[in-house]
Amino acid sequence: MRVVVVGSGIGGLSVAIALRRVGIDVTVYERAPALGEVGAGISLWANAIRALEHLGAADAVKAASLPISRSDFRVANGHRVVARYAAEDLARRANTDSIVRLVHRADLVAALAGQLPPGTVTYGHECAAVETAGDRATVRFTNGHTDEADVLVGADGIKSVVRTAVVGPEKPPRYAGYPCWRAICPRPASLPVGLTGEWWGRGRRFGITCLPGDRAYWYATANTPQGERGDEAAILAKAFAGWADPVPELIATAPPAGILRNDVVDRRPNPKWVSGRLVLIGDAAHPTTPNLGQGGCMAIEDAVVLARHLRTAGPIPDRLAAFVAERYPRTTAITRESWMFGARGQWKGRVSCWLRDRLLGVMMQRLGASLMAKYATFDVGPLPAA
User: Fold this and answer.
1) Is the dihedral of CA 184, 281, 291, 344 positive or negative?
2) What tens digit of pLDDT does each residue of 234-253 get?
3) What is the DSSP letter of 197?
4) Could you tell me if 103 and 61 are in contact, meaning their C-beta atoms sit under 8 angstroms apart?
5) pLDDT tens per residue across span 299-348
6) H-type helices in 95-193, by residue range?
7) Domain ranges for the chain
8) Which CATH superfamily groups domain 2-69+116-173+266-351?
9) Beta-carbon neighbour count of residue 59 at 10 Å?
């Protein structure tokens, strides 16, 4: 069997590693001219690290990442702590050495790419169209190159060309009502190494994490009409003025040119991930808001499950259908929970936020660790021997 993968992000590289481990020939095509990734951080929960262990890539990723030491949840613009969790307690609940590891996306992509032989990924090939007929799937690129395989995997993100061929015309992705600003800067001395936390205000949130190399990664949200742009550093400084330290310092320290802004979007769950010999994974299949930190984790899980099913016997369409049947319930639940969690975090009414914050003060300390363990304890299962 030969498989072609469109997209060399987290999902595309992970599925290439998984397919090679079960003895399937794979070629990855990427539109970017070279290896690279957006300069922001990503959290890898224990469920993703377990999946990477099944891929044989966990050690490389761990070497590039930093485990959390403590997790804080705060309200009232970060001035009031409603829950604080020690990392070792969370890890014990999840039966793992670390419940969450933090890594720069570029370092994660480089670690995954390093697990593949040179030449597995072909850069500078932008997908123009795909089709499936009989027992073949064909991909055509804007540079005129064409390739075909037994199976074609769409790992090309929320704007997936492969998804259009599978699903057909769709409405634009669903806007959550807020953008996400992200940046990396030097870690302030007041920020303990390994700390991660999310702070809620009225219609705004601020997340803080640490990265290897004595760096801090932060993200921010604020209820804003879709598509608005401006002086992002000035917008953030005004929106988060008066928030608890080190929020103002982090915003001021980040290079203005390094502040990324993306509208937060997803799509309502749709089980149509397969058409003939075409199959979707990751954000191409189940784009999810980043509120639970599970988007990249689910893409890695997808890679293991798809490779496992493709390694089984039987007609290939049946194997692809079995992959969707296994993955759809889990990804759908996380997509919906992430949307709802983010919506509550963006409430802005004075009374509703007052009630929300007091309820969280009771629930998060009692139930927060159990909720986090719910995601982290999942094990997608091993790959079969090649």
Assistant:
1) positive
2) 999 999 999 999 999 999 99
3) E
4) yes
5) 999 999 999 999 999 999 999 999 999 999 999 999 999 999 999 999 99
6) 105-113, 161-167
7) 2-69+116-173+266-351
8) FAD/NAD(P)-binding domain (3.50.50.60)
9) 10
